[in-house]
């Protein structure tokens, strides 16, 4: 397939937010140019494309930048609407999908608090992570994906965070699978999709990044 005219993604290899966009593009069969950003020294293109937040990811389509990962996924879904939809067409289901996709961010936000804590200080964030995951597990229920039998918006939003589970468990010494087995099984099903398998970071590579980034052992 020829490169889609003017499609570029500015991201960073360990960014779960950037991976949301990558998975969405892969699901739609869109070929694009990927530009790896050096976050300590952000490129002029990134600063120009996202002057408000100055953050990745940014999708540039025909010279027009789109920022914020969930906004990007919805944009991709609408522009390449000839392919299987990611966002539900029903207004209520779409509203619910947006709610849970945004809620999934809490896993990563809470997990990030672990790096500056040790021992008993980690108990609070560990408990909160499990509580968040249990709510997501309840929403998943016995479904194959969060949208039922169809891989969709919430799956795209949440699955990149699962590559960080190993880092949380290793550093804080607890088991996610023991508490939310359905979430772990769901993640394994998602990994059977080419769009996910070729995008999601190896958990051990993420842990090496975390150790270097936050100076932990």
From TrEMBL:
Domain of life: Eukaryota
Protein's recorded name: Probable glutathione S-transferase GSTU1
InterPro entries in alphabetical order: Glutathione-S-Trfase_C-like, Glutathione-S-Trfase_C_sf, Glutathione_S-Trfase, Glutathione_S-Trfase_N, GST_C, GST_C_Tau, Omega/Tau-like, Thioredoxin-like_sf
Pfam families in alphabetical order: GST_C (PF00043), GST_N (PF02798)
Family: Belongs to the GST superfamily.
GO cellular component assignments: cytoplasm
Phylogenetic classification of the source organism: Eukaryota, Viridiplantae, Streptophyta, Embryophyta, Tracheophyta
Domain GST C-terminal span(s) in chain numbering: 90-214
Keywords: Transferase
GO molecular function: glutathione transferase activity
Role description: Conjugation of reduced glutathione to a wide number of exogenous and endogenous hydrophobic electrophiles.
EC code(s) of this entry: 2.5.1.18
UniProt source species: Rhynchospora pubera
GST N-terminal domain boundaries: 5-84
GO biological process, one term: glutathione metabolic process
